[in-house]
Amino acid sequence: MPCLIAATLLLQSAQPAPAEPATPAPAEAVVVVEAEAPAPPPTDAATLIASFDTQYAQWGDLIAELAGRKARERYLAELLLPVITRSDLDEGASGEILRETRDTIAEVETANTQWALAQLEPGRFAAFELDQPRLAADLLRWAERDEAGRARIVAALEPVALAGRYDAQAFAQMADAVAMSQNGRQLYGTVSTCVDGQRQPARIRRPVDLDDRRAALGLPAMEDAWAALIAAEGESCEAPNPSPE
User: Fold this and answer.
1) C-alpha–C-alpha distance, residues 126 and 136, integer Å
2) On the CB side of 31, how many CA atoms lie within 13 Å of its CA?
3) pLDDT band per the 50, 70, 90 thresholds, residue 15
4) pTM for this entry
5) Cα–Cα distance measured from residue 192 to residue 232, given in angstroms and rounded to the nearest whole number
6) Which of 89, 145, 157, 233 is deepest in the core (most CB within 10 A)?
7) Least confident of 25-34, 56-65, 111-120, 169-178
8) Is the pLDDT of residue 28 over 70?
9) Beta bridge partners of 236
């Protein structure tokens, strides 16, 4: 330590030696890391042909099945709507037509809903959503017609939400609703409850990890989110009336 040694020598010497100018410390090297620019899209025929073949093999059957099922639902609507909206029908005919065709329509919609749910395997759906976001949204809309399928939808959407391709708050609310229905403990802190007239977060599964789970989705820390909620809606609340038995 040069400065400390020099000070000691000065104190021990009767005739202090003239101080030498301090040598400036070398400046720390600043390393600038430039973000890598995304690779330009390929332009050669071989790469593009291989990509075409891969995507067709991977998604061709799924997209064809989805298109056929969408066409069937659309065809039913196109058959029915022009008839029941006619102004010259006999009295009561519109209602009778709806009643008699209801089973056929329900059968097609139910089959499509269950088929859509079956496609929601988390890893495969995430890859499909990345390649075909519009068609993936169609699958989700059908799957959401079955309330009993919410847990499967959440599982399929989780990798998509973690990758930032699905609204984080909407996913957290959906995931918390499913978690509350399963064991009464939410994962992301979006559900509040009313206790003695005061708003409180509903019970949370593994609360020590709550902010980490929220951060993984890009949500603010629970303390900040809760402060914003109280500022918007107030601390006081009214417990819902119990449902009549």
Assistant:
1) 9
2) 2
3) very low
4) 0.76
5) 14
6) 157
7) 25-34
8) no
9) 198
CA distances from 156 to 35, 115, 116, 149, 152 (A): 31, 14, 12, 11, 6
Block residue for tokens 């169609």:
138
Q: Is 120 exposed, middle or buried (0-12, 13-18, 19+ CB in 10 A)?
A: buried
How far apart are alpha carbons 12 and 63 in whole angstroms?
Answer: 89
Tell me the two tokens of residue 170.
């909407």
Instruction: Report CA-CA distances (Å) from 62 to 55, 143, 243.
Output: 11, 15, 44
Give the integer Cα–Cα distance in Å for 82 and 76: 11
Q: Dmax over Cα atoms in the chain, in whole Å?
A: 124
Q: Say whether 199 sits in a helix, a strand or coil.
A: strand
| Distance between first and last Cα of the chain | 83
pLDDT in tens, 46-62: 999 999 999 999 999 99
Give the pair of three-digit tokens for residue 75: 């065809």
Q: CA 111 to CA 109: how far, in whole Å? A: 5
